[in-house]
Amino acid sequence: MRQIDPKQLRPAVQEILDNDGRLMYATGVDMGVKGIKVDYYFSFDHLDRSRHTILRTYLDRENPAIKSVTPLTPQADWSEREMIEFLGVKADEHPNPTHLWLPLNWEQMYSEGTEDRGAIQPKPLSEQVHDNIIALPVTAVPYGPYHPAFIESNYFKMSVEDEVVKKADLKLGFNHRSIIKLMERRDYYKDVYLAERVCGLCKFHHALNFCMSVEKIGDIQIPKRAKLLRTMACEMERVQSHLMAIGIASDLVGFKTMLMHSLRVREDIQDSLELITGQRITHGFVTIGGVRRDVTEAQADFVRAKLKSMKAAMPEMYGQLEASDVWVSRLRDVGVLKPEEAIRLGAVGPTARATGRRLDVRKNSPYASYEDLDWDIITEKGCDSLARMRVKMRETMMSVHIVEQCLDLLRTAPQGIQAKLGELPCTEAIAKTEPPRGELLYHISSNGTNTPEYVRIRVPTFMNGYIMLKLIQGSYVGDVPAIMGSIDPCFSCTDRVTVHKDFKVARRDDASRD
Fold it and tell me: Please, what is the end-to-end C-alpha distance for the chain in angstroms?
């Protein structure tokens, strides 16, 4: 970690970028009288076991201003807009300081002072440009926040000329659950369950990432058997998530039968997870210091039988996809992300690996038992939506191979699935994992009590969602579903910050002031 003066932020960031550093995230924390602490997280992926560094600076609470680094790297765009909205930070020279989470008709981004001004008067919405869609050459096409095409709530708007998308914008903030603030008010063990609920398809990875951060703080050594069980669970989760993504993406391009096929095959993994953990959705399997339950030999035999069935079913299913001229033509040369753009924009997960980049936390910064297993990073060089789908298809087969190795190694692994725990010191730690959608980052600060001082989460959709908008611009309207399906965004993952006051409490407070 390197602490710098706010005026030195831009030069320091430029220096790191010049040395092939990748900006993972930027966030701020209101530290009270100390001011607002702002952190910029970087990873050096080209080095063995990716090195990381944090640039930290403190801003005056009365005038929290920095020079935006978004002109240096677009990877900072959404992060700095988050700080602008939630902490009132003034990011000077930011190219697009518009609302990302707050309502579009909210007050201006920068407030003049901190005094109580009473109820906020929303500014009126401008005249809707899509009221007369026939007369205008450019048409605004809005989707959401509730729309049949979206499983999760979000507001997506495109400016369309003929059939070509000229501009695309995404409005988040419809799925806020206050998970980060709740973590700061509950003990660490309860927070593990909260972490599982950030995402319904990546629950193992969120719980594991939280536990890994705490374990780094307490210097907790995890038993080998627990590491194997964690690895097995994460790879089973990768299979079920990718199968869901393949099915949904196929449905979006007109191959509805494949959605049914993928869900049918996915049930084998769901049945296995239910047997091992006792639950089908939120499993409560990972805990601080290890895992909660061991796997018996009978359970292992059941999982082996299911994997054998899947190893026969998945190649057949993928062969049907590749043989479908409609499926291939709807994805090939659609949503092309060039390798240099993937690096510049900060792509992660299958989105990055579909450009030929070997970016995978499991190899770059190994955790759990990945170092002890025989596997390789899956990459494609097509750089389009078809390449992204092929990465997911091949990764499911690789994950099955990893799970089989874990089951074999469990036969001889020493007993013991939980480590001894002690008191946590006053320090902080970051941890990374590789969920199905890409790199996941947790940053936890400990104050020596049984509750964290603060928690920060950066999910893969935070990076890939921004890239998705870039890919949609310039594409045909009919190709938008294919692009979105190939990237597989999770909008609920990004919504995890705002705290809403209880309505009854708010009414009592208002009454007392009157």
Answer: 48
Query: Residue 90: which of 112, 107, 67, 106 has the closest Cα?
Result: 67
pLDDT exceeds cutoff 90 at 427: yes
The arithmetic mean of pLDDT across residues 379-399, rounded, is: 98
The rounded distance, in Å, linking the Cα atoms of 456 and 453 is 10
The sign of the dihedral angle between the CA atoms of 49, 453, 348, 323 is: positive
In the chain, where the domains are located: 2-107, 179-494
The pairing of beta strand 440-446 with beta strand 428-433: antiparallel
Q: What does each C-alpha distance from 87 to 31, 61, 75 come to in angstroms?
A: 11, 9, 19
Tell how strand 65-67 and strand 22-30 pair up: unpaired
438-463 burial code (b ≥16 CB/10 A, e <16): bbbbbbbbbeeeeebebbbbbbbbbb
Query: Angle at CA 412, nearest 5°, toward 409 and 415?
Result: 110
Q: Which residue has the tokens 């002109």?
A: 71
Q: Which CATH superfamily groups domain 179-494?
A: Cytochrome-c3 Hydrogenase, chain B (1.10.645.10)
- Produce one character per residue of 382-413: b if its CB has 16 or more CB atoms within 10 Å, e if not: bbbbbbbbbbbbbbbbbbbbbbbbbbebbeeb
Question: By C-alpha distance, which of 39, 43, 41, 79 is closest to 56?
Answer: 39
CA distance 282 to 312: 28
136 pLDDT band, cuts 50/70/90, is: low
221/227 Cα distance (integer angstroms): 10
Which candidate, 484, 486, 482, places its Cα nearest to that of 154?
Answer: 484
| Domain 2-107 matches domain 179-494 at the CATH topology level | no
Other Cβ atoms closer than 10 A to 474: 13
Write phi, then psi, for 7 (nearest 5 degrees): -70, -20
User: Which CATH superfamily, name and number, covers 2-107?
Assistant: NADH:ubiquinone oxidoreductase Nqo5 subunit (3.30.460.80)
pLDDT in tens, 299-312: 999 999 999 999 99
Question: So what's the pLDDT on residue 327?
Answer: 96
Distance in angstroms (rounded) separating the CA atoms of residues 129 and 281: 42
Q: Which residue has the tokens 């007109």?
A: 254
Both tokens of 10, joined, read 């831009």
Q: Where does residue 354 rank: exposed (0-12), middle (13-18), buried (19+ CB within 10 A)? A: buried
